[in-house]
Amino acid sequence: MRIFHVLLMTVLLLFAPAMARAQGAFGGGAPHIAAELAVESAVPRPGEGQASGTTIAFSMTPEPGWHGYWENPGDAGLGMTVKWTLPKGVAIGPLRYPVPETLLISGLMNHVYEGPYGVLAKLTVAPDVPKGTKLPIRVRADWLACTDKVCVPEGAELALDLMAGDGSVLPGSRAQFDGWRSHLPRPLGSEAAYAMADGRLRLSIPFPAAASARDVHLFPLADGLIRYAAPQSVMRQGDRLLIETEAGQGMKSGPVQAVLRTGDHVGFLLTARPGAVAAVRPATFQTVLLALGGALVGGLLLNIMPCVFPILGLKAMKLARAGGDEHVVRREALAYSLGVILTCLALGGLLLGLRAAGAAVGWAFQLQDPRIILLLLLLVTAITLNLAGLFELSAFGGGDRLADKGGASGAFWTGALVAFVATPCTGPFMGAAMGAALVLPLGAALAIFAGLGLGLALPFLALAYIPPLRTRLPRPGAWMGRLQKILAIPMALTALGLLWLLGQQRGVMAIMLGVGAALILGAGLWWLGRRQRHGRRGGLAMICAALILFAGAAILLPAHAPAAAASAHGVPFDEARLASLRAAKKPVFLYFTADWCLTCKANEAAAIDREETRAAFKRAGVTVMVGDWTNADPAITRFLEGQGRSGVPLYLWYAPGREAQTLPQLLTPATLTALVP
């Protein structure tokens, strides 16, 4: 049936022009995938080669519920076919497709696009074409539009009228094409290896462990490499991604190409050659147990971190006050532990959900939002002032309405606070456990997050359920007040750390805003403390004022991160600054890198970030400029294409008054130090 399905759609598409004219039988004459022909520059410059010519695009917009196909459509469907009619001197390169999506229908795997997408190609004009020459571009395009139940062949005659000119690009066109280019697969830069045995394909792909990879899927460019609908097992092993799946039929040995998806419309074009590849083994019970053990121990060690220990100390003092009332102590211990574990589960579940939705986030992801950092800063400031004795905070001091109900509610929310504040602290054993949680199945991942919470709650549980430990606590007395004030010191250090983090994300203005908000909050809490000492209330008014303060400060936070400044590795890539340095006849070493590029990182460690290289460049007054392409910066993409490159690494040396010299892709310190006298 699968072969019949593909053959039927092939026959339908062969008659697409005739059927498109009679499309009313299918869609009332309106296409289900609207197509437009767009060009980045309406005045392409003659003489520019494929590396720097203008870009032309098919802008495709499917109706809701309909989809188009990638160049290799999978088990069913057909990609787009085009037939160009071009004036003399104009050439158009091959079509370049964005990273596709997967769609499984009735056991058939389809490589599709369910939303708007752009198919790009390079347009070049010969050097002998005079400027001002009209360039009529005509194309017949045919494609297949499908739902999960029906397929309709569609097509259109599309046209553009261009004129040879200076190659200028309007800002709106540049932004539109940059958006399309950001979804194209980027060359990986390092070759992969594959092996076939017992009907299985095993693929080993160089990919740094620190680089983000989620919703991973392999899309072969040619038939026969894999069975498209078969599950793909993915495992990270150091700086490699291992993929295992069912091999296709009729595959011949030799180099193969594929697109590796590592996020939402983000991926890499890779080449793989036959080689030795270890088998991909799914996570075993022992692996889960090791990760769970690491999470337990890591959570236990978090209790001695500066951001957690003060709160734990207060809870221990509250146990000392409780004396021998086992019922009260154990009830509070369970409530506290439940607050810790549920908060860890909520943060872990949200983290996994965000990653599944395509966000590049990791543990402590909430600290990537400066508003959350500001909220934590104000909360930690309030705790610090409470520990210092400026005012009474009922959640810790006892004697409040929560404590009157047995203290379980207060203990629960204290546990939630501990878990939330503890996430920026990364203790021993936690790194491996959290890394494992991001690649294990959902149930195992959530168990690890719960294990982290249990480890964090273990000291309080031990004190509550092992009476000999609790009896060793000192008797209540004046020492408790002194210890509480001492515990304010590490909490104040935590506030300073949050203030620094806020500055890292939003600059000096954000630090000033955070200090100002903390001072205003401190003044308000001093007012509250004075009222409490005179037996008057004011807690509700203070809570409302604090919320208004936070809302106002969050609105005033700078909207953007501060501009990147020079670092130990170099200044950020800027084409205008590069032109200025060259005009001033300054030597420049420009290199392009990415976190996912193993060759790039090897060269940086072995040659660029070496003391002898830095010393030689400093003596010669060389400006080191770095283009970080980890997130597919459009400006870097255009510059790379202008240099005839489609990927990284790229190393350029600009001697004073000379054109760029392209350096080899494997560098040594001697290669770089020899560039300068």
TrEMBL record:
The chain crosses the membrane at residues 288-312, 333-352, 372-391, 412-438, 444-466, 486-503, 509-528, 540-559. InterPro entries: DsbD_gamma, DsbDN, Thioredoxin-like_sf, Thioredoxin_domain. Residues 1-20 form the signal peptide. Residues 553-677 form the Thioredoxin domain. Keywords: Membrane, Signal, Transmembrane, Transmembrane helix. It comes from the Bacteria. Pfam families: DsbD_N (PF11412), Thioredoxin_7 (PF13899). This is Thiol:disulfide interchange protein DsbD. The lineage of its organism: Bacteria, Pseudomonadati, Pseudomonadota, Alphaproteobacteria, Sphingomonadales.
